[in-house]
Write the structure tokens for this entry.
Amino acid sequence: MSRQRPRDSRTGSDYHPSHHRPAPSLATQAVLLASMAAVVAVVTFPVASLAVAVTVAAVVAVARVVVTRADRSMLTVDVPGVPVEVTVARTARD
């Protein structure tokens, strides 16, 4: 006489869902993927990565100077009888 294994009679509805954390948002996944790609690029091409980093730093520095200069704007102040133009500039201490 042969022994038969009992069949599992549970259905899909008998299994309780596992409580795990939901997947990170697409933005988080994109940031992680970009970070991993950057690490791979730096390890693979260190000289090119340094050149890109220096270029990005230079572009950011130039952009900050341009934005600082663009912050200065002309205002027209109405003084009774004479319109006066005043230049307003922001400083780093503002």
